[in-house]
Design brief:
heterodimer; A: 122 residues; mainly beta; seven-stranded mixed sheet; four-stranded antiparallel sheet; B: 111 residues
Amino acid sequence: QITLKESGPTLVKPTQTLTLTCTFSGFSLNTSGVGVGWIRQPPGKALEWLALIYWDDDKRYSPSLESRLTITKDTSKNQVVLTMTNMDPVDTATYFCAHLDWNYTWNFFDFWGQGTLLTVSS
Amino acid sequence: DVVMTQSPLSLPVIVGQPASISCRSSHSLVNNDGNTYLSWFQQRPGQSPRRLIYRVSNRDSGVPDRFSGSGSGTDFTLKISRVEAEDVGVYYCMQGTHRWTFGQGTKVEIK
């Protein structure tokens, strides 16, 4: 059974750096074809993909946010960490992580975490 | 960037009646591997998104067969054959061929 859970601060100040952790079970990032992505959702707004990391440490970033994002993995802890620099009130959102894998075709975001709500305010 | 445009953005429906949501992509979603990575997600109020459909027309496990997906290239549709009260929520299309992009969402409510 695949589960994911996001954790991190509920409040950060403008200009600070955000660190979010996705802790998962039921799969391994040592397995070929597996990955974890981050998606966010401002209150009342649409979903926005942010970043993704694959089992082989290949990484993808949203072009509009690439300069501010870093995604890493710790396979021994079954965790994926997302850092976002220079936080702004417009970054207030619920942040989700989600699973993907390859099984003859790509299988994107079939399992999601519950999300963690972050507020950016001074 | 690939832009995904959904319509309508709001969809009042009567229980038992059909519903249809359109999703158009600014670029063809046919991947180099021959697959079309277009998915549909349902987000009920206060919940995480749940994937309903993957690769245009494949239903996820546990998804009622009243949900169906169709389309090709740049034009895609999600249909609910007979809406039930539990279908209330926001529906998103997402493309995974050119990185990942979501549509603006379509809010389905009971009339």
